[in-house]
Amino acid sequence: MSDLNTQRRQFLKTSLGAAAVAIAPGMLLFDTAHGKAEAGSSKVRWGMLIDTAQCKDGCNDCVTACNKENGLSGGTAATDSQWIRKIELKDIRSGRELSLPMMCQHCEEPPCVDVCPTAASFKRADGIVLVDRHRCIGCRYCMMACPYKARSFVHEPLQDQKPDVPRGKGTVESCTLCVHRLDKGQQNTACAEACKNKAILFGNLNDENSEIAQKIRSVASVQVRADLQLNPGIRYQGL
Amino acid sequence: MKLLASLLLCLFVSVAWAAEGDTPKLDIGKGGQCVRDPQWMRKNHMHLLMHQRDETVRKGNRIEQDGLKNCVECHASLSDNSVIARDDSFCVGCHRYAAVKIDCFECHASKRRTALVMKDGK
Ligand code: SF4
Ligand code: SF4
Protein backbone atom coordinates (compact mmCIF):
# COMPACT_ATOMS: atom_id res chain seq x y z
CA MET A 1 0.00 0.00 0.00
CA SER A 2 2.62 2.49 1.06
CA ASP A 3 4.95 1.62 -1.79
CA LEU A 4 2.10 1.77 -4.20
CA ASN A 5 1.47 5.33 -3.12
CA THR A 6 5.02 6.50 -3.63
CA GLN A 7 5.00 4.85 -7.01
CA ARG A 8 1.80 6.58 -7.94
CA ARG A 9 3.28 9.89 -6.99
CA GLN A 10 6.38 9.07 -9.01
CA PHE A 11 4.22 8.13 -11.97
CA LEU A 12 2.25 11.36 -11.81
CA LYS A 13 5.45 13.29 -11.55
CA THR A 14 7.11 11.60 -14.49
CA SER A 15 4.06 11.76 -16.74
CA LEU A 16 3.83 15.42 -15.90
CA GLY A 17 7.52 15.59 -16.64
CA ALA A 18 7.06 14.01 -20.06
CA ALA A 19 4.47 16.62 -20.93
CA ALA A 20 6.67 19.41 -19.71
CA VAL A 21 9.61 18.15 -21.74
CA ALA A 22 7.44 18.19 -24.87
CA ILE A 23 6.46 21.79 -24.23
CA ALA A 24 9.81 23.15 -23.22
CA PRO A 25 12.81 20.91 -23.59
CA GLY A 26 15.56 21.60 -21.13
CA MET A 27 13.17 23.14 -18.62
CA LEU A 28 12.73 19.95 -16.68
CA LEU A 29 15.90 18.60 -15.22
CA PHE A 30 14.71 16.84 -12.11
CA ASP A 31 14.43 13.06 -12.02
CA THR A 32 17.90 12.69 -13.43
CA ALA A 33 20.58 11.66 -11.00
CA HIS A 34 19.13 9.37 -8.37
CA GLY A 35 22.02 8.02 -6.42
CA LYS A 36 21.28 4.69 -4.74
CA ALA A 37 22.65 4.17 -1.28
CA GLU A 38 22.28 1.13 0.94
CA ALA A 39 18.58 0.43 1.47
CA GLY A 40 16.81 -1.16 4.38
CA SER A 41 16.96 -4.74 3.19
CA SER A 42 14.46 -7.55 3.71
CA LYS A 43 17.33 -9.92 4.41
CA VAL A 44 17.49 -8.24 7.79
CA ARG A 45 14.94 -8.41 10.58
CA TRP A 46 15.97 -6.21 13.42
CA GLY A 47 14.93 -7.34 16.86
CA MET A 48 15.74 -7.44 20.54
CA LEU A 49 16.00 -9.99 23.26
CA ILE A 50 15.33 -8.54 26.69
CA ASP A 51 16.58 -10.54 29.64
CA THR A 52 14.24 -9.67 32.48
CA ALA A 53 16.53 -11.31 35.04
CA GLN A 54 19.27 -8.78 34.20
CA CYS A 55 16.98 -5.76 34.18
CA LYS A 56 17.31 -4.14 37.58
CA ASP A 57 14.41 -2.70 39.50
CA GLY A 58 14.70 1.08 39.62
CA CYS A 59 17.28 1.31 36.85
CA ASN A 60 16.19 3.72 34.14
CA ASP A 61 19.32 3.92 32.00
CA CYS A 62 17.70 2.70 28.79
CA VAL A 63 14.91 5.26 29.07
CA THR A 64 17.34 8.10 29.74
CA ALA A 65 19.53 7.05 26.81
CA CYS A 66 16.54 6.88 24.48
CA ASN A 67 15.37 10.34 25.51
CA LYS A 68 18.82 11.75 24.93
CA GLU A 69 19.33 10.02 21.60
CA ASN A 70 15.99 11.10 20.19
CA GLY A 71 15.61 14.49 21.84
CA LEU A 72 12.59 13.61 24.00
CA SER A 73 11.87 15.77 27.03
CA GLY A 74 11.86 12.87 29.47
CA GLY A 75 8.56 14.00 30.98
CA THR A 76 6.09 11.28 31.95
CA ALA A 77 2.81 13.20 31.98
CA ALA A 78 -0.05 11.77 29.92
CA THR A 79 0.77 14.17 27.09
CA ASP A 80 4.54 13.58 27.03
CA SER A 81 6.12 11.34 24.44
CA GLN A 82 7.63 8.15 25.79
CA TRP A 83 9.26 5.81 23.31
CA ILE A 84 10.40 3.32 25.91
CA ARG A 85 9.29 2.93 29.51
CA LYS A 86 10.07 0.72 32.44
CA ILE A 87 7.11 -1.27 33.67
CA GLU A 88 6.78 -3.15 36.92
CA LEU A 89 4.98 -6.49 36.93
CA LYS A 90 3.83 -8.50 39.89
CA ASP A 91 2.44 -11.99 39.89
CA ILE A 92 -0.29 -11.67 42.50
CA ARG A 93 -0.29 -15.37 43.46
CA SER A 94 3.43 -15.92 43.86
CA GLY A 95 4.44 -12.36 44.66
CA ARG A 96 7.21 -12.55 42.05
CA GLU A 97 8.15 -9.06 40.88
CA LEU A 98 9.67 -8.02 37.58
CA SER A 99 10.86 -4.80 36.05
CA LEU A 100 11.33 -4.54 32.33
CA PRO A 101 11.52 -2.09 29.42
CA MET A 102 8.58 -1.90 27.05
CA MET A 103 8.50 -0.12 23.71
CA CYS A 104 7.20 -0.54 20.17
CA GLN A 105 7.48 -4.27 19.53
CA HIS A 106 8.02 -3.86 15.79
CA CYS A 107 5.35 -6.38 14.90
CA GLU A 108 5.62 -8.38 11.73
CA GLU A 109 1.85 -7.96 11.35
CA PRO A 110 1.45 -4.49 12.82
CA PRO A 111 -2.14 -3.48 13.59
CA CYS A 112 -1.04 0.16 13.59
CA VAL A 113 -0.21 -0.17 9.90
CA ASP A 114 -3.52 -1.92 9.18
CA VAL A 115 -5.62 0.86 10.59
CA CYS A 116 -3.68 3.88 9.39
CA PRO A 117 -5.90 5.70 6.87
CA THR A 118 -3.04 7.55 5.19
CA ALA A 119 -0.37 4.83 4.97
CA ALA A 120 1.76 6.96 7.28
CA SER A 121 2.32 3.98 9.54
CA PHE A 122 4.39 1.49 7.63
CA LYS A 123 6.84 -1.35 8.01
CA ARG A 124 10.26 -1.07 6.44
CA ALA A 125 11.80 -3.96 4.58
CA ASP A 126 14.04 -4.66 7.57
CA GLY A 127 11.08 -5.04 9.93
CA ILE A 128 11.18 -1.62 11.58
CA VAL A 129 7.74 -0.08 12.02
CA LEU A 130 7.72 3.68 11.59
CA VAL A 131 5.46 6.68 11.20
CA ASP A 132 6.07 8.79 8.12
CA ARG A 133 5.36 12.15 9.67
CA HIS A 134 5.03 13.74 6.24
CA ARG A 135 1.76 11.86 5.89
CA CYS A 136 0.51 11.41 9.43
CA ILE A 137 -2.67 13.40 10.02
CA GLY A 138 -2.69 12.83 13.75
CA CYS A 139 -5.91 10.81 13.80
CA ARG A 140 -4.41 8.47 16.41
CA TYR A 141 -6.10 5.33 15.09
CA CYS A 142 -2.75 3.61 15.38
CA MET A 143 -2.52 4.46 19.07
CA MET A 144 -5.89 2.80 19.60
CA ALA A 145 -4.87 -0.25 17.60
CA CYS A 146 -1.50 -0.87 19.25
CA PRO A 147 -1.86 -3.57 21.91
CA TYR A 148 1.37 -2.43 23.59
CA LYS A 149 0.45 1.22 24.09
CA ALA A 150 3.69 1.98 22.34
CA ARG A 151 2.83 5.20 20.56
CA SER A 152 2.75 8.80 21.68
CA PHE A 153 1.11 11.84 20.18
CA VAL A 154 2.96 15.15 20.10
CA HIS A 155 0.65 17.74 21.61
CA GLU A 156 2.79 20.86 21.68
CA PRO A 157 5.07 22.64 19.23
CA LEU A 158 8.67 21.47 19.60
CA GLN A 159 11.94 23.32 19.28
CA ASP A 160 15.52 22.19 18.84
CA GLN A 161 14.88 18.73 17.50
CA LYS A 162 17.82 16.49 16.79
CA PRO A 163 18.85 16.80 13.12
CA ASP A 164 18.65 13.00 12.80
CA VAL A 165 15.31 12.69 14.55
CA PRO A 166 12.70 15.10 13.18
CA ARG A 167 9.61 15.28 15.41
CA GLY A 168 6.65 17.60 15.35
CA LYS A 169 3.31 18.63 16.75
CA GLY A 170 0.20 16.87 15.52
CA THR A 171 1.88 13.61 14.61
CA VAL A 172 2.31 10.23 16.25
CA GLU A 173 5.68 8.75 17.09
CA SER A 174 7.24 5.73 18.76
CA CYS A 175 10.45 3.77 19.09
CA THR A 176 12.28 3.66 15.74
CA LEU A 177 14.91 1.12 16.82
CA CYS A 178 17.30 4.06 16.35
CA VAL A 179 16.78 3.77 12.61
CA HIS A 180 19.08 6.75 11.96
CA ARG A 181 21.92 4.82 13.56
CA LEU A 182 21.22 1.62 11.65
CA ASP A 183 21.07 3.42 8.32
CA LYS A 184 24.50 4.82 9.05
CA GLY A 185 25.80 1.32 9.60
CA GLN A 186 25.86 1.30 13.37
CA GLN A 187 24.63 -1.98 14.78
CA ASN A 188 23.22 -1.04 18.16
CA THR A 189 20.42 1.05 19.64
CA ALA A 190 20.95 3.73 22.26
CA CYS A 191 19.03 1.79 24.93
CA ALA A 192 20.89 -1.48 24.40
CA GLU A 193 24.19 0.38 24.44
CA ALA A 194 23.31 2.20 27.67
CA CYS A 195 22.23 -0.85 29.69
CA LYS A 196 25.13 -1.65 31.97
CA ASN A 197 23.48 -4.93 33.01
CA LYS A 198 23.37 -6.08 29.38
CA ALA A 199 19.68 -6.81 29.67
CA ILE A 200 18.97 -5.71 26.08
CA LEU A 201 20.48 -7.61 23.20
CA PHE A 202 19.93 -6.03 19.81
CA GLY A 203 20.59 -7.64 16.45
CA ASN A 204 19.51 -9.23 13.20
CA LEU A 205 17.07 -12.07 13.86
CA ASN A 206 17.44 -13.36 10.31
CA ASP A 207 21.18 -13.89 10.52
CA GLU A 208 21.61 -17.27 12.16
CA ASN A 209 25.17 -16.45 13.19
CA SER A 210 24.21 -13.27 15.03
CA GLU A 211 24.44 -13.29 18.81
CA ILE A 212 20.74 -12.64 19.18
CA ALA A 213 19.67 -15.45 16.84
CA GLN A 214 21.97 -17.90 18.60
CA LYS A 215 20.65 -16.92 22.00
CA ILE A 216 17.03 -17.16 20.91
CA ARG A 217 17.77 -20.69 19.71
CA SER A 218 19.24 -21.70 23.06
CA VAL A 219 17.15 -19.98 25.74
CA ALA A 220 13.40 -19.84 26.35
CA SER A 221 11.95 -16.50 25.30
CA VAL A 222 8.44 -15.25 24.72
CA GLN A 223 6.65 -12.58 22.76
CA VAL A 224 4.32 -10.40 24.78
CA ARG A 225 0.72 -11.21 23.85
CA ALA A 226 1.89 -13.95 21.53
CA ASP A 227 -1.79 -14.93 21.28
CA LEU A 228 -2.38 -11.94 19.01
CA GLN A 229 -0.04 -13.50 16.43
CA LEU A 230 1.62 -10.23 15.53
CA ASN A 231 5.08 -11.79 15.71
CA PRO A 232 6.85 -8.87 17.37
CA GLY A 233 10.58 -8.42 16.86
CA ILE A 234 11.09 -7.81 20.58
CA ARG A 235 11.32 -10.93 22.72
CA TYR A 236 11.55 -11.33 26.47
CA GLN A 237 13.49 -13.90 28.41
CA GLY A 238 12.31 -14.91 31.89
CA LEU A 239 8.92 -13.28 31.66
CA MET B 1 18.61 56.97 -33.34
CA LYS B 2 21.73 56.60 -31.28
CA LEU B 3 20.15 58.74 -28.61
CA LEU B 4 17.07 56.55 -28.55
CA ALA B 5 19.21 53.44 -28.25
CA SER B 6 21.20 54.79 -25.37
CA LEU B 7 18.00 56.00 -23.70
CA LEU B 8 16.52 52.54 -24.06
CA LEU B 9 19.71 51.02 -22.76
CA CYS B 10 19.61 53.25 -19.70
CA LEU B 11 16.02 52.30 -19.15
CA PHE B 12 16.78 48.58 -19.36
CA VAL B 13 19.79 48.82 -17.13
CA SER B 14 17.88 50.74 -14.50
CA VAL B 15 14.98 48.28 -14.70
CA ALA B 16 17.34 45.36 -14.30
CA TRP B 17 19.04 47.13 -11.45
CA ALA B 18 15.74 47.84 -9.71
CA ALA B 19 14.75 44.20 -10.03
CA GLU B 20 18.08 43.22 -8.56
CA GLY B 21 17.49 45.58 -5.64
CA ASP B 22 14.12 43.98 -5.05
CA THR B 23 15.31 40.42 -4.64
CA PRO B 24 16.03 39.25 -1.13
CA LYS B 25 19.54 39.65 0.18
CA LEU B 26 20.19 36.35 1.81
CA ASP B 27 22.61 35.30 4.46
CA ILE B 28 23.90 32.24 2.59
CA GLY B 29 25.86 30.93 5.56
CA LYS B 30 28.94 28.89 4.76
CA GLY B 31 27.79 28.59 1.13
CA GLY B 32 30.32 27.20 -1.30
CA GLN B 33 29.74 24.59 -4.01
CA CYS B 34 26.07 23.56 -3.97
CA VAL B 35 24.97 19.97 -4.68
CA ARG B 36 23.64 21.06 -8.07
CA ASP B 37 23.91 24.18 -10.16
CA PRO B 38 22.57 27.10 -8.04
CA GLN B 39 20.17 28.26 -10.76
CA TRP B 40 18.75 24.75 -10.95
CA MET B 41 18.54 24.59 -7.18
CA ARG B 42 16.55 27.80 -7.01
CA LYS B 43 13.88 26.23 -9.16
CA ASN B 44 14.02 22.60 -8.15
CA HIS B 45 15.28 22.14 -4.60
CA MET B 46 11.78 21.11 -3.51
CA HIS B 47 11.75 18.18 -5.91
CA LEU B 48 15.11 17.04 -4.64
CA LEU B 49 13.89 17.24 -1.06
CA MET B 50 10.60 15.53 -1.82
CA HIS B 51 12.33 12.61 -3.50
CA GLN B 52 14.91 12.40 -0.77
CA ARG B 53 12.31 12.35 1.99
CA ASP B 54 10.51 9.34 0.56
CA GLU B 55 13.75 7.53 -0.11
CA THR B 56 14.98 8.19 3.41
CA VAL B 57 11.87 7.60 5.45
CA ARG B 58 10.34 4.75 3.50
CA LYS B 59 13.35 2.92 2.13
CA GLY B 60 16.17 3.89 4.44
CA ASN B 61 18.32 5.29 1.62
CA ARG B 62 20.02 8.21 3.24
CA ILE B 63 21.68 10.12 0.44
CA GLU B 64 23.25 12.60 2.84
CA GLN B 65 24.15 15.01 0.09
CA ASP B 66 20.57 15.69 -1.00
CA GLY B 67 19.05 15.77 2.47
CA LEU B 68 17.65 18.74 4.33
CA LYS B 69 20.31 18.26 6.99
CA ASN B 70 22.95 18.98 4.39
CA CYS B 71 21.15 22.15 3.26
CA VAL B 72 21.19 23.41 6.82
CA GLU B 73 24.81 22.44 7.23
CA CYS B 74 25.90 24.83 4.46
CA HIS B 75 23.25 27.50 4.56
CA ALA B 76 22.66 28.13 8.23
CA SER B 77 23.87 31.59 9.13
CA LEU B 78 27.37 31.83 10.51
CA SER B 79 26.16 34.25 13.16
CA ASP B 80 23.24 32.29 14.65
CA ASN B 81 23.53 28.87 12.95
CA SER B 82 19.92 29.01 11.81
CA VAL B 83 18.21 28.94 8.41
CA ILE B 84 15.00 30.52 9.71
CA ALA B 85 15.81 32.79 12.67
CA ARG B 86 15.93 36.18 10.94
CA ASP B 87 14.31 37.89 7.98
CA ASP B 88 17.38 37.35 5.84
CA SER B 89 17.96 33.75 6.92
CA PHE B 90 18.56 31.51 3.93
CA CYS B 91 15.26 29.61 3.77
CA VAL B 92 12.94 32.22 5.24
CA GLY B 93 14.30 35.16 3.24
CA CYS B 94 13.46 33.65 -0.11
CA HIS B 95 10.26 31.93 0.95
CA ARG B 96 8.80 35.16 2.32
CA TYR B 97 9.73 36.90 -0.89
CA ALA B 98 8.04 34.21 -2.96
CA ALA B 99 5.11 33.96 -0.50
CA VAL B 100 5.54 30.21 -0.19
CA LYS B 101 5.00 28.86 3.30
CA ILE B 102 7.47 26.26 4.53
CA ASP B 103 6.66 23.98 7.41
CA CYS B 104 9.75 21.76 7.20
CA PHE B 105 11.18 23.28 10.34
CA GLU B 106 8.18 22.54 12.50
CA CYS B 107 9.71 19.06 12.67
CA HIS B 108 13.23 19.30 11.23
CA ALA B 109 16.13 20.95 12.99
CA SER B 110 16.76 24.42 11.60
CA LYS B 111 20.13 24.81 13.23
CA ARG B 112 23.58 23.62 12.36
CA ARG B 113 25.01 21.45 15.08
CA THR B 114 28.52 20.66 13.92
CA ALA B 115 31.92 21.93 14.94
CA LEU B 116 31.13 25.26 13.34
CA VAL B 117 28.65 25.89 16.13
CA MET B 118 31.13 25.12 18.84
CA LYS B 119 33.64 27.49 17.33
CA ASP B 120 31.16 30.35 17.36
CA GLY B 121 30.29 29.69 20.98
CA LYS B 122 26.82 28.32 21.95
S1 SF4 C 1 3.98 -2.47 18.92
FE1 SF4 C 1 2.27 -1.17 18.42
S2 SF4 C 1 3.20 0.56 17.32
FE2 SF4 C 1 4.72 -1.08 17.36
S3 SF4 C 1 4.39 -2.21 15.44
FE3 SF4 C 1 3.18 -3.27 17.00
S4 SF4 C 1 1.16 -2.31 16.84
FE4 SF4 C 1 2.57 -0.96 15.77
S1 SF4 D 1 -2.13 9.06 13.72
FE1 SF4 D 1 -0.88 9.17 11.87
S2 SF4 D 1 0.24 7.22 11.81
FE2 SF4 D 1 -1.44 6.96 13.29
S3 SF4 D 1 -3.12 6.06 12.12
FE3 SF4 D 1 -3.44 8.31 12.06
S4 SF4 D 1 -2.37 9.00 10.21
FE4 SF4 D 1 -1.65 6.90 10.63
From TrEMBL, chain A:
The keyword Iron applies. Gene3D superfamilies: 3.30.70.20. Residues 127-156 form the 4Fe-4S ferredoxin-type domain. Signal peptide: none annotated. Keywords: 4Fe-4S, Iron, Iron-sulfur, Metal-binding. One of its GO terms (molecular function) is 4 iron, 4 sulfur cluster binding. The keyword Iron applies. InterPro entries: 4Fe4S_Fe-S-bd, 4Fe4S_Fe_S_CS, DsrO-like, ET_IronSulfur_Cluster-Binding, TAT_signal, TAT_signal_bac_arc. Pfam families: Fer4_11. This is Tetrathionate reductase subunit B. It comes from Sideroxyarcus emersonii.
UniProtKB/TrEMBL annotation, chain B:
Keywords: Signal. Residues 1-18 form the signal peptide. InterPro entries: Multihaem_cyt_sf. This is Hdr-like menaquinol oxidoreductase cytochrome c subunit. It comes from Sideroxyarcus emersonii.
